[in-house]
């Protein structure tokens, strides 16, 4: 069964998020940072969509735009046919209950002046769900779900480790009973030894609660462990999208190949002299004439500098890439042969 | 002490503040002074705290009683119902009766008729007046230096030598009392060649009797414990200690009100600037820059020239400028704090802007507010004192440190040291206390030990 078989939970079409660059005393707009530049994607129920890419490519901005933490400059975000990008008032509040977020930094994502109980209860208070005692019971239940003791309820975030805090963040995200959780690099700030625990907690919750995830990461080994489908972002655009096995086996975009080659390996036989990514990321402020990856691409041809390539299918309709030489790239042997890498600390 | 409902950051800051002794004790002293200032009518007031008069207890602190109530004789030409009882005098008179009765009692021996006559003569010997430690209100002029000599002079002129002697003893004029007893006073006052009969005032002025020196002069008078002017009187004969106390009361509450309104407005404006950002921030920031360029002293002087300044009018005028400084700090705090992920989290579950600002962000942005408030209080006290000194502050009879400093700096008062020391001393002590508190708060709130945001 693939994602395309079911009605998707969330569909984003042509989403743009441009940040104006302001200047002068009155802050006139003198340009724009094209943080998200025409992204379309779909998330199927109970599936995980991975979002990978270099730092600054717009992953977080896309995640926040899908959550309506930012209003998209253009484009639509539909959650089960309801337009999240334009919703207001009560409609927006109802939609917010469906999508929640787990944040990257467990040290700043919890208000240091609130107890764990208050933090996890806040969403229930905001949405006026249940009486005080019902809320208290629900908080205990949520803490149990993420594997925390009931005694944590009256303590403050500063008394907990990063991994425990991230569990608290997960409990807060689950409080409203969402069906989609956007996780923005949920383990990248954690100690390697506890990453696996948090990832496995998320997988367990996905199974038990039927959650869909948008999983943002720049760590491909984590993505391989967590995701069903992966979208690779470059300079605000999706340049390749494929089911996880296909992406690791037959990447069809030179940028994806470069990312895969950059995964560090502990196995000396799998260390390669593959070309790492070279060159500067072009500024997200100017729109480029041709393919934005062309200045750094090893496969570049003259045709690349003419038009921005669109996402087109490679072999199957589930695998799409934005490269005019996608067939050649997919067919070329990988510098590293073998299975996709394992997430550290992940149980088989 | 335990702080059950405080978050750990605040708790640790409070603990650290308590450990900085200097600031902690300064705070305790200042708070105690403020509490005392609230009870100023029991500390410095011409009304007695309590009067026990012929079997009834009176508590006149907040109650008007005419002279008649206690059988006092009004000054000539006045009805005793129209004039408030003079409690200080009452205390002196009843004290006198007590002592004279005791003297008469030992003289009368066991003669019942003499004892009955004595009891009828001194009916108030068992009545008492409890005066505040400073038995003066800040508005009342006391020309005591003249009055004492007048009273004794009257007793002498009426031939009541016993009374005159006793009054002299009671007011600590031992040399005069001895002269009255021995009769030497007659020769001192007698008319001689080329001069008419002298008065006690003449004796004081010419220095013919050393212990009278300083009496018979006009105010300002030096500190005098017998008369309970612990810090002397000002040029209108008003008690300096009472005026300092009430001046403190006015300036500290003025400063607190002013800083409170200023910080509330500044916090709201600054928070909105930082939280909303964008156009609102830009436009309001330009307006604030315009306001900063307005010379505030001139504005106050112009307004004070048009209207009679009152406590609340001055607060209103100064508030116009007081709120600006804190906006800068709150604005940057909000800019920093709103990008933290807990704020995004609150947004993601649909918390209202109001809830985000006041429940989530503001408690994390209070550091500048708390650390700057003590210094703002110092500034406000200075501002009021300065305006009072310049004459644009609170109107004339209001007790005020600035007005006292003004008196002290007058050329004719240069040698009246108490006039200089009292207000400057009070100002210095208050400011040092507040600065100690401010420094300690800043030290306790220093974020450096919390380099890691927790
Ligand atoms: N509020 C904002 N205002 C202006 N520019 C922004 C804003 N947020 C993000 N950007 C810009 O948008 C681009 C994408 O940023 P984003 O945080 O989405 O990247 P990212 O892929 O999440 O990177 P990382 O892996 O480092 O988290 C960056 O160039 C960033 O500078
Ligand atoms: Mg990011």
Average pLDDT rating of chain A: 86
Count of alpha/pi helices of chain A:
10
Bound molecules: adenosine-5'-triphosphate, magnesium ion
Total DSSP E strands of chain A = 12
Overall description:
- The complex is a heterodimer of chains A (about 350) and B (about 450).
- Chain A is about 30% helix and about 25% strand.
- In chain A, helix 3 (about 115-125) runs parallel beside helix 5 (about 160-175) and helix 4 crosses helix 5 (about 160-175).
- Chain A folds into two domains: about 5-25 and about 30-235, P-loop containing nucleotide triphosphate hydrolases (Rossmann fold, 3-Layer(aba) Sandwich); about 250-270 and about 280-335, no CATH class.
- The longest helix of chain A has 18 residues, at about 190-210.
- Chain A has about 350 residues and is of the alpha/beta class.
- The two termini of chain A are about 20 Å apart.
- In chain A, strands 6-7-8-3-9-10-12-11 form an eight-stranded mixed β-sheet, with helices on both faces.
- Chain A has helices spanning about 60-65, 90-95, 115-125, 130-145, 160-175, 190-210, 220-225, 245-250, 255-260, 325-330; strands at about 10-25, 30-45, 50, 75-80, 80-85, 100, 180-185, 210-215, 230-235, 235-245, 310-315, 315-320.
- Chain A has ten helices and twelve strands.
- Chain B is mostly helical.
- Chain B folds into two domains: about 10-35 and about 240-450, MetI-like fold; about 50-210, no CATH class.
- Chain B is about 60% helix and about 0% strand.
- Chain B has a three-stranded antiparallel β-sheet with strand order 2-1-3.
- In chain B, strand 1 and strand 2 form a beta hairpin.
- The interface of A and B includes residues 96, 107, 111, 127 and 159 of A.
- Bound molecules: adenosine-5'-triphosphate (ATP) and magnesium ion (MG).
- The site of adenosine-5'-triphosphate has 13 residues of chain A, from strand 2 and helix 1.
């Amino acid at each position: 069964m693939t994602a395309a078989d079911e009605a998707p939970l969330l569909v984003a079409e042509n989403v743009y998020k441009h940040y104006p660059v302001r200047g002068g005393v009155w802050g006139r707009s003198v340009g724009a940072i094209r943080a998200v530049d025409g992204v379309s994607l779909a998330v199927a129920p109970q599936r995980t969509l991975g979002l990978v890419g270099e730092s600054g490519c717009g992953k977080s901005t896309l995640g926040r735009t899908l959550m309506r933490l930012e209003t998209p400059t253009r484009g639509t975000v539909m959650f089960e046919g309801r337009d999240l990008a334009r919703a207001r008032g009560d409609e927006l509040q109802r939609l917010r209950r469906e999508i929640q977020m787990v944040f990257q930094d467990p040290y700043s994502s919890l208000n240091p002046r609130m107890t764990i109980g208050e933090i996890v209860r806040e969403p229930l208070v905001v949405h006026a769900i249940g009486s005080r005692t019902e809320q208290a019971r629900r908080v205990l239940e949520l803490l149990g779900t993420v594997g925390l003791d009931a005694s944590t309820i009256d303590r403050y975030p500063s008394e907990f480790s990063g991994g425990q805090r991230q569990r608290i963040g997960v409990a807060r995200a689950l409080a409203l009973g969402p069906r989609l959780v956007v996780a923005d690099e949920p383990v990248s700030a954690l100690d390697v030894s506890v990453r696996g625990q948090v990832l496995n907690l998320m997988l367990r919750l996905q199974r038990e609660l039927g959650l869909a995830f948008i999983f943002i990461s720049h760590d491909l080994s984590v993505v391989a462990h967590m995701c069903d489908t992966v979208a690779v972002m470059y300079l605000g655009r999706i340049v390749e999208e494929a089911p996880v096995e296909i992406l690791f086996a037959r990447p069809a975009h030179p940028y994806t190949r470069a990312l895969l080659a950059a995964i560090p390996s502990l196995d000396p036989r799998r260390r390669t002299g593959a070309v790492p990514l070279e060159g500067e990321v072009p500024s997200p402020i100017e729109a480029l004439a041709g393919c934005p990856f062309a200045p750094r691409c090893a496969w570049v041809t003259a045709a690349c500098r003419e038009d921005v390539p669109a996402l087109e299918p490679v072999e199957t309709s589930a695998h799409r890439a934005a490269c005019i030489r996608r067939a050649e790239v997919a067919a070329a042997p990988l510098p590293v042969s073998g299975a996709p890498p394992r997430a550290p600390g992940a149980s088989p | 002490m335990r702080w059950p409902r405080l978050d750990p950051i605040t708790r640790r800051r409070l603990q650290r503040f308590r450990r900085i002794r200097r600031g902690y004790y300064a705070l305790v002293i200042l708070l105690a002074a403020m509490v005392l200032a609230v009870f100023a009518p029991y500390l410095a007031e011409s009304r007695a705290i309590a009067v026990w008069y012929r079997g009834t207890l009176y508590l006149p602190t907040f109650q008007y009683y005419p002279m008649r109530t206690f059988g006092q004789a009004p000054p000539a030409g006045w009805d005793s119902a129209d004039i408030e009882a003079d409690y200080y005098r009452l205390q002196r008179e009843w004290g006198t009766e007590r002592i004279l009765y005791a003297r008469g009692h030992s003289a009368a021996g066991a003669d019942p008729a003499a004892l009955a006559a004595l009891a009828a003569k001194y009916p108030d010997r068992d009545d008492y007046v409890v005066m505040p430690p400073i038995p003066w209100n800040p508005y009342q002029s006391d020309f005591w230096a003249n009055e004492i000599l007048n009273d004794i002079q009257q007793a002498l002129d009426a031939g009541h030598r016993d009374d005159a002697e006793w009054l002299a003893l009671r007011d600590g004029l031992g040399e005069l009392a001895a002269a009255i007893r021995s009769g030497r006073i007659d020769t001192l006052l007698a008319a001689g060649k080329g001069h008419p009969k002298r008065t006690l005032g003449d004796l004081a002025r010419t220095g013919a009797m050393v212990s009278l020196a300083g009496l018979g002069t006009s105010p300002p008078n030096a500190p005098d414990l017998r008369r309970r002017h612990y810090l002397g009187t000002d040029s209108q004969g008003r008690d300096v200690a009472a005026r300092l106390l009430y001046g403190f009361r006015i300036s500290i509450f003025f400063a607190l009100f002013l800083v409170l309104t200023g910080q509330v407005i500044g916090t709201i404006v600054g928070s909105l600037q930082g939280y909303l950002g964008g156009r609102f921030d830009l436009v309001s920031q330009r307006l604030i820059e315009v306001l900063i360029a307005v010379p505030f002293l001139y504005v106050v002087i112009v307004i004070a020239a048009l209207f009679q300044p009152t406590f609340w009018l001055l607060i209103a005028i100064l508030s116009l400028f007081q709120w600006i400084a804190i906006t800068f700090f709150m604005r940057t705090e909000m800019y920093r704090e709103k990008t933290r992920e807990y704020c995004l989290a609150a947004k993601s579950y649909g918390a209202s802007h109001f809830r985000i600002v006041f429940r989530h962000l503001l408690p994390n942005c209070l550091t500048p507010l708390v650390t700057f408030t003590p210094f703002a209080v110092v500034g406000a006290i200075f501002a009021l004192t300065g305006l009072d000194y310049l004459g644009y502050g609170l109107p004339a009879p209001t007790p005020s440190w600035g007005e006292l400093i003004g008196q002290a700096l007058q050329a004719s008062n240069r040698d009246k040291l108490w006039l200089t020391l009292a207000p400057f001393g009070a100002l210095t002590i208050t400011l040092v206390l507040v600065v100690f508190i401010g420094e300690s708060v800043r030290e306790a709130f220093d974020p450096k030990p919390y380099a890691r945001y927790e």
